[in-house]
Design brief:
The structure is a single chain. This protein is of the alpha/beta class. The chain has one domain: Undecaprenyl pyrophosphate synthetase. It has 8 helices and 8 strands. It has helices spanning about 10-15, 35-45, 50-70, 90-110, 125-140, 155-170, 185-190, 235-245, and strands at about 20, 25, 30-35, 75-80, 115-120, 145-155, 200-205, 220-225. The strands form 2 sheets. The chain has a 6-stranded parallel β-sheet, sandwiched between helices. Strands 1-2 form a two-stranded antiparallel ribbon. Helix 5 links the parallel strand 5 and strand 6 (about 145-155). Helix 4 (about 90-110) packs parallel to helix 5 (about 125-140). The two termini are about 20 Å apart. Bound molecules: 3-methylbut-3-enyl trihydrogen diphosphate (2 copies) and magnesium ion. One of its GO terms (molecular function) is ditrans,polycis-undecaprenyl-diphosphate synthase [(2E,6E)-farnesyl-diphosphate specific] activity. Its EC number is 2.5.1.-. Its cofactor is Mg(2+).
Length: about 260
């Protein structure tokens, strides 16, 4: 029988609420849906591409702030599996920006002890991007600072389907039985398996949806939606989101120890 007052969630999720920095709870793992580049550009009378270009600067600010704030892991949504449906010219611009970002920033990220990982399905049709992504991971593999995960050609439903396909193969080959397919085993096969449990999802631009991002991992994450377009996101906005997070009461399905 379930014990009333014992919080639910997996043990690692319950351990997750993090250390205290400057007197407030700091999340271990923050995921960011970097949205609003196009609207930012439109509001400034500029082409959408300029919004994406300015968005890269916001990524740099975010990485630097996360390191200062003592956050262990940041996962950023850079391109969704649905973003292929955008006009070809915009998709090409986004791919070009990714390549330029790796070329210009990899050295700095590495020097700052950032460990970069790519999740999602990569770009099987573009061997140059594939090579750059894999090299980025290899070069920074031994780093012990901020864990920066870039979700690229990522879709959560695909990720879960890939995980379950792997388990189904194990069942078909007799290595597992159907009863072995537990939430823990699925989580172990997700792209995020090595990362700490997700504590906080931030989405900029005012939209309030997950858009196929970390659906499984966000089961008990706090969600913070900010009324700022991504190119204007800075340390002050990051701190605002963290301060909102620190006021949230995470229950994981249980109740507070005092029963209120
Ligand atoms: C986010 O900004 C960047 C990507 C999705 C790649 P958008 O391009 O979605 O900007 P809006 O939502 O149109 O303003
Ligand atoms: C989500 O933003 C994807 C990224 C930020 C990379 P979108 O702009 O693609 O999401 P929707 O279409 O508004 O849901
Ligand atoms: Mg958008």
């Amino acid at each position: 029988m379930a014990k009333i007052g014992v919080p639910g969630g997996t043990p690692s999720e319950r351990e997750s609420p993090a250390v205290s920095v400057a007197g407030s709870a700091v999340p271990r793992h923050v995921a960011i849906i970097m949205d609003g580049n196009g609207r930012w550009a439109k509001a400034h009378g500029l082409p959408r591409f300029e919004g994406h270009r300015r968005g890269v600067e916001a990524v740099r600010r975010t990485v630097s702030a996360a390191r200062d704030l003592g956050i262990e892991a940041v996962t950023i949504y850079s391109f969704s599996s649905e973003n292929w449906s955008r006009p070809l010219a915009e998709v090409s611009e986004l791919m070009g920006l990714l390549k330029r970002f790796i070329r210009s920033d990899l050295r700095d990220l590495h020097a700052n002890n950032v460990r970069v990982r790519i999740i999602g399905e990569g770009h099987p049709g573009d061997s140059e991007i594939e090579t750059m992504l894999r090299e980025t991971e290899v070069i920074t593999r031994g780093n012990t600072g901020l864990r920066l995960t870039v979700a690229f050609n990522y879709g959560s439903r695909n990720e879960i389907a890939r995980a379950v396909q792997g388990l189904a193969r194990d069942v078909a080959q007799g290595r597992l039985t159907p009863d072995d397919i537990t939430p823990e085993r699925i989580a172990e096969r997700l792209d995020t398996a090595e990362l700490p449990p997700l504590d906080l999802v931030i989405r900029t631009s005012g939209e309030q949806r997950l858009s196929n991002f970390l659906l499984w991992q966000a089961a008990y994450a706090e969600l913070v939606f900010l009324p700022v377009h991504w190119p204007d996101f800075d340390r002050a906005w990051f701190e605002k989101a963290l301060s909102e997070y620190s006021r949230r009461e995470r229950r994981f399905g249980g109740i507070e120890p005092d029963g209120c």
